[in-house]
Hints:
67% of the residues lie in helices and 1% in strands. By secondary structure, the protein is mostly helical. Strands 1-2 form a two-stranded antiparallel ribbon. The protein is elongated. The two termini are 22 Å apart.
Amino acid sequence: MFTEKKNKNVKLRVISRPCSSHRPTSVRSCLLKNALFISNLFFTVMGLVVLGMGLWGLITKESFAQERIGHIGTDPMLVFVFLGLTLCLLCLMGCVGSLRENSCLLRLFSGAVLILVAAQVLVAIAAYSLQDQIVPVLRSGMLMAMVRYQDDLDMRFITDEIQMNLQCCGADNYRDWEMNLYYNCSAPGVQACGVPASCCIDPLENGTVWNSQCGVGAQQLVEFSAQSVIYLGGCLGGIARWIEQNKQLIGIVGIALLGVQILTLIVTTRLLDNIQWSKAISSQRDVES
């Protein structure tokens, strides 16, 4: 009788130890899953923003129109659409993997995040080491876009967005548009010696109608007269000023995003370890029972 009671006590102790040790594991697992879910939710919103930018660009340029749908495969806005979709799918994989405790999905997710972190670090290092060449590259790209302004809808869209948002005209100044075949002063036609409407200070008449002729003949005006019609400064100076004014914010945001990704990678790794340990405990309990 004493032996049976002793055996029962031993069994109770054996069963109770895994349960007591399993409870903190469940709490830790729950915290890790919630942290990973919140992180993925944050990056899902970012992915949707990027996807929205790409779709907005396609819709604004009327890329889905019947006469342009055949060339949509070369549209640069598809880069934003692809990046947004990729980020959303990656976050979905992380969410499902964490909530379902699927080790396979979590390993794929952590591998993808590790590749993204490494790529961003390499891009940052390359940008810092080649910072003296950034301005010449931007200048050549801007001049090329200006030369192909009428012939390439994508170049026109990007150039117009830059000039309107930064309130600038040309690469270095508004007279850079003379290199364009249609805006050159020796060119025949109405656009000769003019600039695009995106250079105008007020391209909208009465705030509603787009005046595409507001920049006609602007290159023939002296700077004092032209400054009341168009923006005189070039976009390279505007880009440089914007970067200079916001470099601290850019650095903080970049470091914060990279830190969140590294933290996500650490949380995913800990969650994987926790899942494996929980499975090991469950197997041990099954054997002991």
